[in-house]
Design brief:
The protein is α/β, with parallel strands linked by helices and about 240 residues long. The chain has one domain: Rossmann fold (3-Layer(aba) Sandwich). Helix content is about 30%, strand content about 25%. It contains 9 helices and 13 strands. The strands form 3 sheets. The protein has a 7-stranded mixed β-sheet with strand order 3-2-1-10-11-13-12, with helices on both faces. A 4-stranded mixed β-sheet has the order 4-9-5-8. Strand 2, helix 5 and strand 3 form a beta-alpha-beta unit. Helix 3 runs parallel beside helix 4. It is globular, with a radius of gyration of 17 Å.
Length: about 240
């Protein structure tokens, strides 16, 4: 697949992310390809913005919000957005959760690069230095970031309501969902930690979503390589997918 965007690569992690873009999470790409031009996409935990860039390259009339709390990644989203002249990507610096206010962001030591924090790194958490499997990690540094309930972010700042949401935040999925409103949402991709959030599927079914769709049935779905407690699950409305 030839992608209609390019990025600046200043770290080995960024090189890895673009080299494995098609193979790492094929279900994410197929899901984004199912959107309609003009839909509103919230990329929560956007990292350096690869999936926002991919969506923008396909849908010039869509509105995309790329939300990221780690400053080096956020600045890279802005850089990559401007590099590709994708004016429909709206980078937002901060995190989502189950309350609105300020939170401390704990950046793991493994994100260290000689020049500073490595662009493209992941694993930073708000509230406490605990990774997605519940283990405490060694902290490189901390700083304060804004945190919103998604419903507050949308209504307080007059943003477009989400129709598609990707949540890939390495451990805060449950808290983010507590701050969501699902009234206009057509589909969601959630990186699901089965141990920390065992009731996710039943809760989403009560909101009118199903996992019975083509994206979760892909033969090359990333879960078939991971064999663990964490996997991407795509939820669609009962009458979609």
């Amino acid at each position: 697949m030839k992608y209609k965007f390019n990025i600046g690569m200043d770290s080995e992690i960024e090189k890895y992310r673009i080299a494995t873009f098609e193979s790492k999470e094929p279900e994410t790409l197929r899901w984004i390809e199912s959107f309609q031009d003009g839909d509103v996409f919230y990329d929560v935990g956007a990292n350096i913005g690869l999936y926002s860039l991919f969506a923008a390259s396909l849908y010039p009339n869509s509105i995309i919000y790329a939300i990221e709390p780690m400053i080096t990644n956020f600045l890279k989203i802005v850089f990559n957005r401007d590099r590709n002249k994708f004016e429909n990507i709206n980078p937002i610096y901060g995190a989502l959760g189950n309350h609105t206010g300020l939170e401390k962001l704990y950046i793991p030591k493994l994100t260290f690069l000689r020049q500073g924090v490595m662009p493209g790194a992941s694993g930073s958490q708000i509230g406490k230095p605990e990774n997605e499997i519940g283990s405490e990690y060694e902290v490189l540094t901390t700083h304060i970031v804004p945190c919103w309930r998604l419903i507050d972010l949308v209504y307080d700042f007059f943003l477009y309501r989400p129709q598609h949401i990707k949540i890939d935040v390495d451990g805060q999925e449950k808290e983010i969902l507590e701050g969501c409103s699902f009234s206009d949402v057509k589909s969601m991709l959630i990186e699901w930690n089965k141990k920390n959030n065992p009731d996710l599927i039943s809760k989403m079914e009560k909101e009118g979503f199903t996992i019975n769709n083509e994206f979760n049935r892909l033969e090359n779905h990333s879960k078939n390589r991971q064999n663990g407690e964490i996997e991407n699950v795509i939820f669609t409305r009962e009458n979609c997918g």
